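QUALITY CONTROL LOG
STEP: pairwise intake check
CHECKER ROLE: data steward
CRITERIA: each record must contain a sequence immediately followed by its C-alpha cells, with no blank fields

ENTRY 1 OF 2
RESULT FIELD BELOW
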Amino acid sequence: MEKENTQGIGFFERYLTIWVAACIVIGVAIGQYLPVIPETLSRFEYAQVSIPVAILIWLMIYPMMLKIDFTSIVAATKKPRGLVVTCVTNWLIKPFTMYVIAAFFLKILFQNFIAPDLANEYLAGAVLLGAAPCTAMVFVWSHLTKGDPAYTLVQVAVNDLILLVAFTPIVAFLLGISDVIVPYDTLFLSVVLFIVIPLAGGYFSRKHIIKNKGLDYFENVFLRKFDNVTIVGLLLTLIIIFTFQGDVILSNPLHVLLIAIPLTIQTFFIFAIAYGWSRAWKLPHNIASPAAMIGASNFFELAVAVAITLFGLTSGAALATVVGVLVEVPVMLTLVRIANKTRHWFPETAKRA
C-alpha cells in the first residue's frame, strides 16, 4: 500500500517544500527589484482581499470541489464527531492557547529583545490569527492528505458560521478592548470567493460533464486534467503574497523570527490536539486530517485586515499577522507529511488498505 501511495504522488507534490521555498524567495525578490509588479497588483484589491490571489485560490479549490458527490454532503452532517473535534478545538481551545503561548514568549521569554508596547501589539496580531480558523487553504491541505472533500466542505462551512458570531467577542475578551471592528465585507467576500463560487462551479461542472460524457470520462479523463492545478495555484499564490510582504520581512528579520517561534509551536500544538482526539475517537483518516488542519491553519486574510483596521498598516499587530502567513505554509506542509505518514494509525483507513 505504501508503494502505491508513493507512486501516486506527483512531481510537484513530491518536492513541494523545495518549490515553496523557491516561491518565497522569488516573491520577495520581485517585491524588491520589480516594485512595479506589486504596485500594479495592489490596484486589484477589494475589502483587503487581493483579487489575483482570490482567483488563484479559486483554482486551487475548484478541482477539489469537482470531486464532491453532493449527495455526500448530507451524509457528512450525519457524522457529527468530526465536526465536534473541529469546533471545540477551534473555538474553545485555539484562541486561548494562542494567547497564553504568545504572551509567554513575546512578553516574558523575549522581553530583552522586544519592548513591552511592541510585544503587546505582536500579541494582538497573534490573537487575531488564533481566533480565525482557516477558510480557503484548508481545502489544499485536505487535498494533499486525501481528505474527504464533502466532509471538509461541511467543516469549513460550520466554522464560517461560528466565525460570524464568535470572532468579535473572543478577540475583544482576550485583548481587553471593546471597539473591535470586524470588516464584514472581507469576511463575506472571502466566503463567496473561496466557498460559494468554487462550490457552484464544481457542482454545475460535475453535473454537466457526467450527464453528457458519463461518470467514467469524468473520473478518469476530466479530473486528471487538474492533477497539478492545485499545486501550481499554491505556488503562484505564494509568489504574489510574498511580493507584497518582502519589505516587512527584510526590515524586521529578528522580530520576524521571534514572532514565528510561538506561532509555530501553537500550530503544532493545535494539530496534535485535534489529530490525537480524532485518533482516540477512531475517526477515519480522511475526516481526522482536515479536522486537524482547519484549526492548525489560519484565515490570514481576515486577521491581516482586522489588524490593519484596528492598529494600522505599520503596526506590530499587522507584522505579526504577516509572519503568520510566512510561517503557515512551510509548517502546514510539515503537518501534511506527518498526517500522510501516520495514516496507518487510523483503523478504518488501515482496514480499507
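ENTRY 2 OF 2
RESULT FIELD BELOW
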Amino acid sequence: MLGLAFALTGPISSLPAFCATAPTPAANTIEPKVIIVTGWENGADTGDAPGEYQFWVERLHLDQTVPIKGISTQVLRRNADGVYGIVLKDGITDLAALALDTRFDLHHTYWLFTGISGVNPNVASVGSVAWSRWVVDGDALREIDDRSIPHSWPYGLYAIGADKPNTLPNNPNHYGSVTDIADLTKAYPLNRGLEHWAYKLSASVTLADAPAISAQRKNWDGYPNAQKVPFVLEGETLGAYRYWHGARRNTWAEDWVKLWTKGEGLFAMTNEESQLNQAEMRILSQLGHIDLARIMVLRSGSNFSMPPAHADITHSMGDEGPGQVIAFDNNERAGEPVVKELVKNWSHFYNHIPGNPL
C-alpha cells in the first residue's frame, strides 16, 4: 500500500493554533522557540568542510547540546536564546523521537526546514534561496517506460487514479480505503502568511556568490533567471526520492507542482526528503504534538535540475560540488534574520504567529 498525503480543509493560516489548547508546561519543560532542521552534515558540526548544518551552528552559536531520549544517535544543539538545531541522521525517526520526548513542549515552536536542492533554471539560479508555500510529493505516481508512452503524451509519469498526465485522479479506490478524492492530494500547504512574512524579512539579504558559479551562469543563454546572481524568492519545493535530472523531467516537475496546487504553485527547488518530512509533521500535528501553522521550508539551489544546452547530461547529473558551499551559506544568510526576529519578539510571537490575522 502506498503512503497517503492527507489533505487539510481550508488554508493552513486559518487553522487553530495548538497553543490555544496546549497544556501549561511544567517548570522544567523545554520549550524551543525555533528548531532549525537540516538533512545532513559533513564530518563535525563545526570547524571543517561545511554541510547543511555547520553555518547554522557556528553563526547562531548553537554550542549547548541536549540528547533526545530513546535515540542514541541524535543530539540537539541550542543556544542561550532558545534556538535549536537538528540534523536528521535517522530521517523522520528523529522528528518522531523529539516530538515524543516528554521533556519537550513543542506547541509554540517554530520550525525551519532547510537544505540544498536542485534549482529550476526557468525560475532561479544556483545559490538562490526559495521560501516554499507548498511542499509537493513527487513519489507516489504511475510510470510508463519512456520507450512505450503514447505519442501524444509529454512523458510517462502521471497521478495514480488518473488516466493520463496532467489530470487529477478520478477514482479514490485505487488506494483501497480512501473514499474522498481530496485525500489523494500530493501538495502539503504551508502557512502562507508566515511564509510571506519570512520572505519579506530576508528578501534584501546580501547573498554569497562564487567565481565558478558566475562562470557557469554564462552557459544558460535563454534562461534569464538562471543567469542572475543569487537572490531570494518565493517558490515551491518538490520532494522525490528518485534523483531525477533533465529537461523532460523538469517539465514534469513544473506540471506536477501546478497540478497539485491547482495552478498556483511555482516549481523552484527539488530534493529527496522534503515530502517525507512534511508527511511526518502532519502526523505529529494530528496527534497534537506540534503546531502545523508554525512550519517554514527554506531551500537553496546547489545545482540545476537539468543541464544547459549542449552539455553532457551524465556529467551534469549530480554536479553539485561547485555550488554546495554557497548554497549552504546562502540558506543560513536568508534564514537568520527570520530566526532572530522570532527570538527578539518572542513575547508576542509565542501566541501570535507572524503574518496571521490577530
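INTAKE CHECK: passed for both entries
DESCRIPTIVE NOTE, ENTRY 2: The chain has a mean pLDDT of 90.
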